[in-house]
Design goal:
By secondary structure, the chain is an alpha+beta fold. Among the domains are: 384 residues, Multidrug efflux transporter AcrB transmembrane domain (Multidrug efflux transporter AcrB transmembrane fold), CATH 1.20.1640.10; 134 residues, no CATH class. The protein is 65% helix and 9% strand. The chain is built from 25 helices and ten strands. The strands form three sheets. A four-stranded antiparallel β-sheet has the order 2-5-1-6. The chain has a four-stranded antiparallel β-sheet with strand order 8-9-7-10, sandwiched between helices. The chain has a two-stranded antiparallel sheet with strand order 3-4. A hairpin with a 2-residue loop joins strand 3 and strand 4. Helix 13 packs across helix 24.
């Protein structure tokens, strides 16, 4: 019954091929034109906050915190160097001039500079403001410098320890658009240029965003071009014909065009993750094309009629290729377990692109082959006795060395397990950028000469919701936490209600003890004056009007998630020991903290996604083969490369973070392709009644060349990612390349051994 149905399908298909293929080509051309017109509307985007996790109430706390007070990342710092020393009248007058110009820029909310910095004190009921630096009077420079460098709050914030630069703090409007950020950054740089200086350093979102986006656009084009060049090279080596290059390339290029067109139609922008999307489609889509192409010309070389080849390909190559599509898509869709939208979108749209490439491989590709097939390609796919002899010898060596292969695999897995134990989960804010990039150098400048740029925010709540935080005993506890933070994190640029009160007290009463906090009597007098001016913007940035919520904000160096977590644990331990948890609640928050938490969540997401991939593929394998032993045979050669990669990461010190954690699920989906083709071909040969050894030999000959070619194409494509100046993108490409190499070695050497152990018992 099945045979007659298959024959009817063949006959009907052969009669209607021309009409069908004409329709396919026409539809592809029309939809490609539509997608091409949409490319001009495709936007690039680097939304820093899109990478914030949403696993628990951390993001909710942060959103409420910045709504109550202010955004912690809407600022920029400008460090201006004078290597001969900053206490120079001309230099300081120039600093004051640009400070005034900065304050007139529309998108700047406030400017704090060494020349407008003032200390507040109270004289009776009136606040008194005294300048820190009398820049217009050099006679006072000595006294000013003594006061500055005896102040914990000024050194490391506006003045460095070496006194060879000054820092200007600019508070920008919240949520400026990309255009507004670029305009503001350009205007600030033009203002700076009007004064002489030895060097200048810029940090902040308005500067970093432009660097990321410009790099993103450049690398988007570079990845595409390099992938194109690599694929062209391997296609030429395989088919030695312009046709053998143009036709496969047209399939994947149209696949990319359609995917980008669909993204534009739904309003999806290209972000840091989606910049890799064309490369992923290019190399993943090419695999299907190569298997189809190779089988087509092998059949032509055998003398099979062209009209009968396509149905034969559907029978012998189509189903295995469909299975590889499923496993690849499962690998990418496992990213849906991530709580981070750009990563989920990357998984979705890459899956769309891979599916489009598969559909075009079995619709447009046969149409192009139908209308024109050059003879030169046929001769290329004739049998090469040297190649076949080499493959035959290799296969026989594998069967003679089964124990050696199993023992070597076991040793490698043991070593990999040791390496896995050394993996660290870490993240540094700007480590993605190359050290030669100016913004990275500027960031390091502030880490070295000042307290740093990384925000550390502490949300403080009255636990019972009734007792105001202005309470003397509560404020003393808050001050003890502020003091601990400064010491533990080497922090500065610190603001909090407790530090605000301490500064007023020291300026008013002229105490010589820098760590002194006022006694209750003086404290109550100061608080009375502060609360009388509760509408003051400076007070509102520190304490809510009902005095039930407050903040402690500071800047620290970018020490990374691992070290920051240790300090955070010490801080929480100090809070637990030295504050009253029934009255006060402290929570670390802020943009940098969320990015750190993001990496912790990504590890859990990776485990969930990886488990999902294995489960789906295991169920699919069992459904096809009705054997749990076959499930193990299928899973083991594809899990081993991931174990080895994890071990390499541990020994090489490659840290686990958002980008590197993606490797495992994606690589597993891609690595299974060769296994599917090998096992499927082996079953077909056994189904033809061949002996086990002959079936293995035919499987090697039929699938060996396409597997090796697709491996080189995959490697070449992913190697293009290693040209990235983003460290995470580099490691993503590097680790997947290594995984692909190990996976193909496992399929060539280990998979036959495992299959022989199963089939050998029933087919001697």
């Amino acid at each position: 019954m099945r045979v007659s149905l298959w024959r009817k399908f063949n006959t009907a298909f052969i009669k209607s091929q021309k009409t069908y293929y004409t329709f396919v080509v026409s539809f592809v051309l029309l939809f490609s034109v539509l997608c091409g017109t949409r490319l001009t509307g495709l936007q690039f985007n680097y939304d820093f906050e899109a990478f914030f996790p949403n696993e628990d109430n951390e993001l909710e706390l942060y959103n409420q915190y910045r709504k109550t007070f202010e955004y912690d990342n809407e600022f920029c710092l400008i460090g201006i160097e004078r290597k001969a020393g900053i206490f120079d009248k001309t230099f300081l007058k120039n600093i004051d001039s640009i400070t005034q110009l900065f304050s007139r820029v529309p998108d700047i909310v406030r400017v704090t500079s060494p020349t407008n910095l003032k200390l507040i004190s109270f004289n009776g009921l009136s606040p008194v403001f005294e300048r820190v630096l009398h820049f217009e009077n050099p006679d006072l420079y000595k006294d000013d410098s003594l006061k500055i460098y005896n102040s914990d709050n000024l050194v490391g914030s506006f003045f460095p320890t070496d006194a060879k630069s000054v820092s200007i703090f600019l508070r920008t409007k919240d949520q400026l658009t990309k255009t507004e950020c670029d305009s503001l950054a350009d205007r600030l740089e033009r203002i700076i240029k009007i004064i002489p200086y030895d060097d200048v350093h810029y940090v902040g979102r308005i500067f970093a965003q432009n660097v990321y986006l410009s790099t993103l656009k450049t690398e988007f084009a570079i990845f595409l071009v390099l992938s194109f060049v690599v694929v062209v090279a391997f296609l030429w080596l395989s088919f030695r014909s312009l046709y053998g290059i143009v036709v496969p390339l047209s399939i994947v290029v149209i696949s990319i065009l359609w995917t980008l067109g669909i993204m534009s139609l739904v309003g999806k922008e290209i972000d840091l993750m989606c910049a890799m999307l064309p490369t992923m489609i290019f190399i993943a889509g090419m695999s299907d094309v190569v298997h189809f192409f190779s089988k087509y010309f092998e059949e032509l070389a055998k003398g099979t009629e062209r009209q009968k080849i396509y149905p034969l390909i559907l029978k012998e190559v189509g189903f295995p290729t469909f299975l590889t599509l499923v496993t690849t898509v499962v690998g990418f869709l496992s990213l849906l377990f991530s709580s981070i939208k750009p990563i989920r979108d990357f998984g979705i749209y890459t899956s769309v692109g891979v599916v489009v490439a598969f559909i075009l491989s079995y619709t447009l590709l046969p149409a192009l082959l139908y209308f024109f097939t050059p003879k030169k390609l046929v001769s290329v796919h004739g049998q090469n006795n040297n190649t076949y002899n080499l493959m035959r010898k290799g296969l026989f060596w594998i069967f003679r060395s089964q124990k050696f292969i199993l023992i070597l695999t076991t040793i490698v897995l043991i070593l990999s397990t040791i390496g896995i134990s050394k993996i660290r989960v870490n993240n540094i804010l700007l480590e993605d950028l190359n050290d030669k990039v100016k913004i990275k150098q500027d960031f390091n400048f502030f880490d070295k000469h000042y307290s740093g740029v990384r925000p550390l925010e502490l949300a403080i709540f009255s636990k019972d919701g009734k007792t105001p935080l202005w309470n003397y005993q509560l404020m003393k506890q808050i001050y003890s936490v502020d003091t601990f933070i400064k010491k533990e994190y080497s922090a500065n640029f610190s603001v909090s209600p407790a530090l605000f009160i301490k500064t007023i007290y020291q300026n008013t009463y002229e105490t010589t003890n820098k760590k002194a906090f006022p006694e209750e009597e003086e404290y109550n007098e100061i608080v009375k004056l502060i609360t009388a001016n509760r509408n003051n913007k400076e007070v509102q940035l520190l304490m809510t009007k009902d005095a039930l919520r407050s903040r402690s904000s500071t800047k620290i160096r970018d020490m990374g998630r691992l070290e920051a977590s240790q300090h955070n644990a010490a801080l929480y331990q100090f809070i637990k020991t030295n504050t009253d948890s029934t009255q006060l609640n402290f929570r670390i928050t802020g943009a940098a903290h969320l990015i750190d938490r993001n990496n912790e969540y990504m590890v859990n997401n990776m485990i969930q996604g990886f488990g999902f991939s294995i489960f789906i593929i295991a169920i699919l394998t069992y459904f096809l083969h009705r054997s749990w032993r076959m499930v193990l045979v299928f899973i083991i050669p594809n899990v081993i490369p991931l174990f080895i990669i994890a071990g390499i990461m541990g020994f090489a010190g490659i840290e686990l973070k958002a980008a590197t954690s993606l490797v495992f699920s994606i690589a597993f989906g891609i690595a299974t392709d060769d296994t599917i083709h090998f096992i499927s071909r082996l079953k077909i040969e056994l189904g033809y009644g061949k002996s086990l050894m002959y079936a293995f030999k035919r499987t090697y000959f039929e699938t060996g060349k396409p597997i090796i070619l697709t491996t080189f194409i995959l490697m070449g494509g992913f190697m293009s990612l290693m040209t990235s100046s983003f460290q995470s993108t580099f490691y993503f490409g590097f680790l997947i390349c290594i995984t692909i190499i190990i996976a193909v070695l496992a399929d060539i050497f280990l998979l036959p051994v495992l299959l022989f152990l199963i089939y050998g018992k029933s087919k001697k």
